[in-house]
Amino acid sequence: MDFAFGADDERFRGEARAWLEEHVAGPFASLRALPPGQDGRAAAHRKWERALGGGGWIGLGWDRTHGTYGNRAATLTQQVVWAEEYARAGAPARLGHIGENLLAPTLLAYGNTAQRARFLPAIARGEELWCQGYSEPDAGSDLAGVRTRAVRDPREDTYRITGQKIWTSLAREADWCFVLARTERDSQRHHGLSFLLLPMDQPGRIEVRPIRQMTGTAEFNEVFFEGAVARAEHLVGGAGHGWQVAMGLLAVERGVSTLAQQIGFAQELGRVVEQALETGAAREPVLRDQLVRQWAELKVMRWNALRTLGAAQDPGAPSVAKLLWGGWHQRLGELAVQVRGAAAALGPTCWTAEHPYELDASQRLFLFSRADTIYGGSDEIQRNIIAERVLHLPKESRR
């Protein structure tokens, strides 16, 4: 199989690289160190999103059969090129990832004309940010167990949403949230669920509480809904069809963006190798073998991602990808501290009021990667999906 890029792709790469070199400068060049919104510069990150939108770099390759929403046309391979160049340029972490890469493809597949016209242009311009209301305290990877309820109010033509979501990325920065909630009384599992879009600016009805992690940052949040209002016209896919919409969204979650993720992985691996050489740890045969294995496995992940991008919809492909990179990144975190030896237990002397302790890059990598095999669907859930939907093995008992 030929994984090479064509002449048109390379011309597109030159255009993307030139734009990034020009714009990842000045105040934008400093937006790399921490996750978006965690360094007190959410406003600067929002300006970056608008710069991307103004340059036509949001929504590459959106399906144009339903209309044009301000994004530039791009083939699948050109989307890969952009993702790779963005990562290589060290461009700022995205605030608009969830809207662009999760909600937009979902609206193109399941939304109606009015919903696409309302929400897609604002996403393409980098003006409206989104978060995802899926996981709950008692329904994390088991998404069918959600308990958040949405009750239709026919007088106002709205839904009133009550419940709690957790591990909600960017909830403090988001303007809108897409929520999976139960709209049918006494429904169970994947029946009776609906996919609703609601504004986050509802004081007294929506409360966001940040979750402080071992790394000292708080990318994730708890979100409490107390009668939050969603307009009935912002119900996507029809009442009771939320499970189908939610599964369609998860299928696109690990698409082109995984290739950009792998560029970041390669950069992290490169830093670990440099430290192994500096500390002399690379002379240890076992550790050197582990580093080589990490490099080889990363190559396999890239080839697998490229192979599955252009293939027909494969229900197991996203789960295979998640299993591959989750474990790989976790092992890299372990290597990052292993190559430094005892020095990995020491931290910098820079303390701040917001962060009572500071971590260096390898320490953050180690601590954050502990969650890689849990968030986004645990390894156990991914294996169940592969077993049941691909291999058609008997379903696991949920009693």
From TrEMBL:
<dbReference type="InterPro" id="IPR052161">
    <property type="entry name" value="Mycobact_Acyl-CoA_DH"/>
</dbReference>
<dbReference type="InterPro" id="IPR013786">
    <property type="entry name" value="AcylCoA_DH/ox_N"/>
</dbReference>
<dbReference type="Pfam" id="PF00441">
    <property type="entry name" value="Acyl-CoA_dh_1"/>
</dbReference>
<feature type="domain" description="Acyl-CoA oxidase/dehydrogenase middle">
    <location>
        <begin position="131"/>
        <end position="226"/>
    </location>
</feature>
<keyword id="KW-0274">FAD</keyword>
<dbReference type="InterPro" id="IPR046373">
    <property type="entry name" value="Acyl-CoA_Oxase/DH_mid-dom_sf"/>
</dbReference>
<dbReference type="InterPro" id="IPR036250">
    <property type="entry name" value="AcylCo_DH-like_C"/>
</dbReference>
<keyword id="KW-0285">Flavoprotein</keyword>
<dbReference type="InterPro" id="IPR009075">
    <property type="entry name" value="AcylCo_DH/oxidase_C"/>
</dbReference>
<dbReference type="Pfam" id="PF02771">
    <property type="entry name" value="Acyl-CoA_dh_N"/>
</dbReference>
<feature type="domain" description="Acyl-CoA dehydrogenase/oxidase C-terminal">
    <location>
        <begin position="240"/>
        <end position="391"/>
    </location>
</feature>
<protein>
    <submittedName>
        <fullName>Acyl-CoA dehydrogenase family protein</fullName>
    </submittedName>
</protein>
<keyword id="KW-0560">Oxidoreductase</keyword>
<dbReference type="InterPro" id="IPR037069">
    <property type="entry name" value="AcylCoA_DH/ox_N_sf"/>
</dbReference>
<comment type="similarity">
    <text>Belongs to the acyl-CoA dehydrogenase family.</text>
</comment>
<dbReference type="InterPro" id="IPR009100">
    <property type="entry name" value="AcylCoA_DH/oxidase_NM_dom_sf"/>
</dbReference>
<dbReference type="Pfam" id="PF02770">
    <property type="entry name" value="Acyl-CoA_dh_M"/>
</dbReference>
<feature type="domain" description="Acyl-CoA dehydrogenase/oxidase N-terminal">
    <location>
        <begin position="8"/>
        <end position="127"/>
    </location>
</feature>
<dbReference type="InterPro" id="IPR006091">
    <property type="entry name" value="Acyl-CoA_Oxase/DH_mid-dom"/>
</dbReference>
